[in-house]
């Protein structure tokens, strides 16, 4: 009987894990099943481009069913409703699926409730953290172009995915200049970070000085160590200081574990994230792994306003490959697979050019001095990388990670 591996989640972590396992384990020996509530894979880093109008959702996504079938990976389009670790069964509304190995790559739940008014559907605030939210944000940006006014972009206390806030700040600055509207739209960046470029990883080389210089050159006001408490239709309220006027507010929320993970007894920490070891094995349950945003990671340091540890698609892929390697070793009867410290490679879209950052390892102190570089070539590289990555993912190839994201 074939060994059963179930992967929950069809984004970077789930797809990388499933493909990596299948490349090294034949279908007659190991049955791989991927369960996802989403029918399509979406290249999430490009959601900011969808919001600003330079990409469509169809351009950055593809249906999961075909590529997985071609790789002999079963695909189940359902929402997981429970995980029974005692019986080693994953439950959905349609049935039960037994496993020998389980990989949790469920991503996150946006904890928008942490900031009053951070909608987008039950308040005036906006976020680019999901496809539905990005569609709504796209409409808000179009309205801003028609009716210019002051805006706020930033992150809420406890945020960990702060990069999109920087990208949207720069992209909107460039978009408005292209339309000769920038003089009508004051931009304020508000962040819990103790300084620009902290990003939940304690900064990287000269990124702080670089970002401070870019914001000052572009007349972008900024406030660090700031706790956004409430968003209204015409202002963003900050703890201890006067509100900032804003007709459109984009705020990255803190993240939490998805409900099914958070509600499974003993499975996660209080925030719903999964505790793992260096192989991304669950610390308590045999045969269970977690990769990506679902993994519990402590912050790099205590800051005046909480900032959680950075999580990126590039880091998720590294986790997925380590977890897959450990599962392969276990199936082959070998000791655990290789482990390594996570590194972060990222290109930030600045509208007219890109900025490249490398932090290896992500968590300081670091053996290598972090690299920071900017120029038009990096924006071109980011655009090319998006297309190349999607093509590889769609065809079941090993995804290129040279640049990271």
Descriptive keywords:
405 residues; alpha/beta; FAD/NAD(P)-binding domain; 2 domains; five-stranded parallel β-sheet; four-stranded parallel β-sheet; 22 strands
Describe this structure in words.
48% of the residues are buried. Strands 5-2-1-9-19 form a 5-stranded parallel sheet. The two termini are 40 Å apart. The model has no long low-confidence stretch (mean pLDDT 96). Strand 14 (228-231) and strand 15 form a beta hairpin. The chain contains 9 helices and 22 strands. Helix content is 27%, strand content 22%. It folds into 2 domains: 3-110 and 256-341, FAD/NAD(P)-binding domain (3-Layer(bba) Sandwich); 112-254, FAD/NAD(P)-binding domain, CATH 3.50.50.60. With 405 residues, the chain is an alpha/beta fold. Helix 1 (12-24) runs parallel beside helix 8 (313-331). The chain has helices at residues 12-24, 47-52, 65-70, 131-146, 163-178, 207-217, 259-262, 313-331, 376-394; strands at residues 3-8, 30-36, 40-42, 61-63, 74-77, 80-84, 89-92, 96-98, 101-104, 109-110, 151-155, 187-190, 220-223, 228-231, 235-238, 244-245, 248-252, 255-256, 288-290, 344-349, 354-359, 371-375.
Outline the fold blueprint.
Layout: E1 3-8, H1 12-24, E2 30-36, E3 40-42, H2 47-52, E4 61-63, H3 65-70, E5 74-77, E6 80-84, E7 89-92, E8 96-98, E9 101-104, E10 109-110, H4 131-146, E11 151-155, H5 163-178, E12 187-190, H6 207-217, E13 220-223, E14 228-231, E15 235-238, E16 244-245, E17 248-252, E18 255-256, H7 259-262, E19 288-290, H8 313-331, E20 344-349, E21 354-359, E22 371-375, H9 376-394
Parallel strand pairs: 1-2, 1-9, 2-5, 9-19, 11-12, 11-17, 12-13
Antiparallel strand pairs: 3-4, 6-7, 7-8, 10-18, 14-15, 15-16, 20-21, 21-22
